[in-house]
Amino acid sequence: MIARSPAIKRPKIDPAAQERLPPGQILAKRWPVRHEGEIPPFDPATWSLRVWGCVARPLAWSWDGFQALPQITITGDMHCVARWSLLDLVWSGTPIGEVMARTNVLPEARYVIFHGEGGYTANLPLAAMTPDVLLATAHDGAPLAPERGGPVRLVAPNRYAWKSVKWLRGIEFARDDAPGFWERYGYSASADPWAEERFDR
Predict the structure, then answer these.
(1) In whole angstroms, what is the distance from residue 35 CA to residue 181 CA?
(2) Residue of 16, 52, 71, 38 whose CA lies nearest to 171
């Protein structure tokens, strides 16, 4: 079941922003809430984020431990495969590079599989782990709301939004690719909105 809740209104954006949209996208006035399954409960006493696979040092953080990691704030766009885009969303959280450095990703790693609650996964090439890929805990200066993927959501601004896994619980670095939830239904493994990589051809 795909859950939907009332959309959040966004301020008007100058029409010139249309030039910043990938092909086939339209500028959204609202931010729809869409996800697979129900919103999971969050208990900071039992929550953890695990990193494993092709790493020299597998790690797992408690909620307190994860919050103690270095954080940055980025401004990034969101492009949905349903053809709407939002520009200049402000996210705060831990950059994926911080996780990669602490776990020492091995040379044979070529892919990253992100694991969310309920068995949801999404895969990306390791080369897509650019400095703006974030394990986000806040949006617009406030803790990330549960319907937006809180307490922790992957944010990959340069990929279609289904790659930005909500309710993130695990990161697996892998030698071989493994299709995620939507990829098993034919969605693109790389999901580059500028190349309109919506579906595998």
Answers:
(1) 12
(2) 52
Taking only the tens place, the pLDDT of each residue in 69-91 is: 999 999 999 999 999 999 999 99
- 3-state SS class at 120: coil
Q: What is the reported pTM?
A: 0.89
Query: Structural domains in the chain?
Result: 23-31+46-195 (3.90.420.10)
- Rounded CA-CA distance 65/60 in Å is 9
Give CB contacts under 8 A, 24+ apart, made by 118-121.
118/36, 118/37, 118/38, 118/40, 118/167, 119/181, 120/36, 120/37, 120/165, 120/166, 120/167, 120/180, 120/181, 121/165, 121/178, 121/180, 121/181
